[in-house]
Amino acid sequence: MSEFLPNPARGKEVFDLDRAHVFHSWSAQAQISPLPVATGKGSYFWDFDGKKYLDFSCQLVFTNIGFQHPVVVDAIKKQADLLTTVAPQVANEARGEAAKRIVELASPHHQKVFFTNGGADGVENAIRMARLHTNRHKILSFYRSYHGNTTSAISATGDPRRWPNELAYGHVHFFGPYSYRSAFWSKNEEEECKRALEHLESVITFEGPNTIAAILIESVVGTAGVLIPPQGYLEGVRALCDKYGILWIADEVMSGFGRTGKWFAYKQLLAAELLGVRKIKALMQRSLRWNYYELSTR
Questions:
Q1: d(C-alpha 100, C-alpha 104), whole Å
Q2: Does the first or last residue of the chain, that is N or C, have fewer Cβ atoms within 10 Å of its Cβ?
């Protein structure tokens, strides 16, 4: 970080510019008061008054390696000197190398990476690919979930932000396991897991297995409360997908790249013998780009 000197006057200008011209997502615009952030380093950032903040939330859950990591900043500068952008239809050294490194961290059957512009974009393309591959149209997802704010992604989302935006078709929601506020009157985690899987299979049965392209779930539910699935739940989802020929889309936008102690959350939570199975589409974004640039993968 270059030397930072507090500048309250500039902070006021930044705040006024924001309030005059920036439209913030998921906010009643007249009711918010955004904090002007001047700079950051490691796990901390500073406002223009010189006040230092410990960023427990990693901004919006994306600064895994902190602010202004010197290795990343240097790599960005070097790449900018060499080539700032390139069209998707050509081969590129940096893109090919990044894809290779990503698939080496994923399960053995993953061989390809599709780069997109953000998490919601990744979800949109995963849904599209699942529908094309299976020739089915329905997508199942949790009620307690958030998958992005584009058309299909917000329709797949379960939280109330979905309600005025349900413009995509074929989206069905179901209850995932959540022992604290169980929808299944469970007495313990094992019972919650069993009943949640029975509920999911009932939804599959009544919706028609041959109409369901994919089950889209966050490996660890993020925005809706950081809900870790009970032991055995992801194995059960995997088994149901195999039983009915349904694809599993693992949304790792918030939980991937080390968030759970392994490179991908589904690797942390899924039995080792199931990691090599086919039909897992893994999505990652925030953790992959550490928000130094815009990127996601499918």
A1: 6
A2: N
DSSP tally for the chain: helices H, then strands E: 10, 10
Please name the helix (run of DSSP H) or strand (run of DSSP E) that holds residue 44, with its range, or none: strand 44-47
- Answer whether residue 285 shows pLDDT above 60: no
Q: How far apart (Å, rounded) are the C-alpha atoms in residues 148 and 130?
A: 17
Residue with the two structure tokens 């490179």: 263
Residues 6 or more apart whose CB falls under 8 angstroms from that of 179 comprise 186, 188, 189, 192, 230
Final residue in a domain of this structure, among 49, 76, 103: 76
* pLDDT score recorded for residue 44: 96
Beta bridge partners of 139: 171, 214
Cβ neighbors of 169 (< 8 A, separation 6 or more) are 137
27 token code pair: 């906010």
Give the H or E element holding residue 215. Answer: strand 212-218
270: its two tokens = 């899924």
Query: Are residue 165 and residue 198 in the same domain, yes or no?
Result: yes
How many Å apart are CA 298 and CA 15, to the nearest integer? 36
pLDDT class for 148, splitting at 50, 70, 90? Answer: very high
Instruction: Report phi then psi at 202, rounded to 5.
Output: -65, -40
What's the DSSP call for residue 202? H
251 within a domain of the structure (yes/no)? yes
The parent domain of residue 104 ranges over: 86-297
**CA–CA separation, 13 and 18 (whole Å):** 9
Reported as a pLDDT band with limits 50, 70 and 90, residue 275 is very low
Mean pLDDT of 243-258: 89
The string of pLDDT tens digits covering residues 30-68 is 999 999 999 999 999 999 999 999 999 889 888 888 999
